[in-house]
Amino acid sequence: MPKSHLDKYFLAAIVESSQDSIVSVDFDLKITSWNRSAEELYGYPANEVMGKQLTKLTLPEDLSLIMRKVEQIRASKVLEIFETERVKKCGSTVCLEVMMSPVKDSEGAVIGISTIARDITERKRIADAVKKKEILANLLAAQERERTRIAMDLHDELGQHITALRLKLQVLGAACTQPDIEEGIKDIEEIALNIDDSVSVLAHELRPHAIGDKQLVEAITVYLATWAKHFGLTAAIDTDGLTDAEFDAATESHVYRIVQEALNNTLKHAKATNVEIMLTERGNDVVLIITDDGVGFDSTVIPTFPNGLGVTGMKERAWLIGGALEIESAPGKGTSLFVKFPRSNGS
Predict the structure, then answer these.
(1) How far is C-alpha 259 from the chain's CA centre?
(2) Domain contains 161
């Protein structure tokens, strides 16, 4: 066999065995060759596409882009690399990195175009997920900074004014000689005390002192006790020997906010009298379990509730630390929330 024939045979074998889709078209965009990887990628056998228009695989909105690149290659003979989407036989789309290059005859004249396409759907999915995670993390970090600022304002400004008001009322009460006015002053003192307590609880909810100092277990324990006392529920926590040193800053912040949101949902929707929290180890992971004895609900229809009961936000926080969140509930059976996350957030 002449060497030229061997070269052509060898080249054809390379094209056919390539892991990338290799398709050639003429300048009318009619398909002139179609390798095995193209069959696997698009779902069409060669006999169904040979001689057909490449537009069969092209999204309508991408047609002008393809035509423009074809003309650029015909005019300048340069190689073009770009990302696009194509339509498979089943109707679904696939994200591709496409390299278009000229096909030349023996005299160097451009007679067609070769397109080498690589499926980058998974790569794009991962990149989009990373971008989403980065945006969400930045958004929640900004939210934490704003919460810290508001908490400081509540403590330093409003808290001081309330303290001054209570002191003034005490002075007035001590100097008052009229029983009815003295009783009124005591009532106002009680109101001021309640406001002071509410401001303290709110400031602590916005930014607990322990968070940021690797004291997640302490922060949750203190918050649960304060929350239960303030709203008149019974509550207990079992940390199963876990220590604060086992959690990084991102993990402790997100887990703490999940606990807050879960308890907030319990207060607003569950009509519970008792709440239990457990933090326990399972292999290389930590599991947070929050259980209440409330009215429960059909956990399969959470999205139909107003604002999704904050579940989306909690799931996003769990996702950011490499974890997952699940809810088990049934009418009259209470609710259990499970969050499984790695001991240390490596993202």
Answers:
(1) 18
(2) no
**Which alpha helices (DSSP H) does the chain contain, by range?**
3-17, 36-42, 46-49, 63-76, 121-153, 159-175, 179-206, 216-231, 249-265, 311-320
d(CA 16, CA 278): 58
Q: How would you label 291-322 residue by residue, b for 16+ Cβ within 10 Å and e otherwise?
A: bbbbebbebeeeeeeeeebbbebbbbbbbbbb
Instruction: Give the angle 54-57-61 at the CA atoms, nearest 5°.
Output: 100
List pLDDT tens digits, range 252-292: 889 999 999 999 889 888 999 999 999 998 888 999 999 99
CATH number at residue 341: 3.30.565.10
Q: Which residues form the domain of 50?
A: 3-120
Query: Of 120, 151, 174, which marks where a domain is finished?
Result: 120
Contact residues for 279 (Cβ-Cβ < 8 A; gap 6+)? 217, 220, 237, 238, 239, 240, 242, 286, 287, 288
How many independent structural domains does the chain possess? 2
* 87-122 pLDDT tens trace: 999 999 999 998 888 888 778 888 888 889 999 999
Tell me how far apart the alpha carbons of residues 153 and 162 are, in angstroms, rounded to a whole number.
13
End-to-end Cα, the chain, rounded Å: 58
> Same structural domain for residues 218 and 340?
yes
Q: Classify residue 204: in a domain, yes or no.
A: no
333 located within any domain: yes
DSSP string spanning 219-274? Answer: HHHHHHHHHHHHHT-EEEEE-TT--GGGS-HHHHHHHHHHHHHHHHHIIIII--SE
**Residue 48: CATH number of its domain:** 3.30.450.20
Retrieve residue 183's tokens: 């009783």
Residues 114 and 232 in one domain: no
82 confidence band (pLDDT: 50, 70, 90): confident
- Final residue in a domain of this structure, among 62, 96, 120: 120
Residue linked to tokens 């690589």: 118
